Structure formats: C-alpha cells, structure tokens
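User: structure tokens for this one?
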Amino acid sequence: MSIRAFRFQLRPKPGTAHALRRFAGACRWVWNRAIGEQQRLRAAGEKFSGYVVMCRWLTAWRNDPDTAWLAETPGCGSRRRRTASSTRTTSA
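Assistant:
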C-alpha cells in the first residue's frame, strides 16, 4: 500500500485573503472563549455544556457590544434569518 500526499496553496486576491484571515481569527477567538467557558464550568463542578448551550453563548457574544464584530464576520456560526418576504413560494 502506498500513501500519496498532495500539497495545495491558495492564492486568493487581497480582499479575499483579508476575509479568510478575519474568518479564521473569529473562529479561533470563539473556540478559545468556548474552551475557557468549559474550563470555568468544570472548575465550578458543573456539567459540560452541549451544543445548544454553546450556540446560546455564541449568540450572546455576537449581541454583546464589546464583541459585536463577531456578528459582522461572515460565516462565524451566524445564519441569516429568512423573512417572509425572502422565502420562495412554489406552486404545485
């Protein structure tokens, strides 16, 4: 059995490179903050927080004025809410 390896390099345009760095930085910040919260809970003798609770954390962080930049970061766990005017209706 032989193992083949491939190396790829992205060469984005400057604007895209900036967006990628911003996205990666925001994801790293959220990861570190969530780990900190889990460690705080463990030290307090509380249970591990699951997915739903961590989603609430992310929502709170995005709505906090000190970390409002998270809401502006594309794809950082935020999904655009669909309004009634933006939903597509299909006729049968």
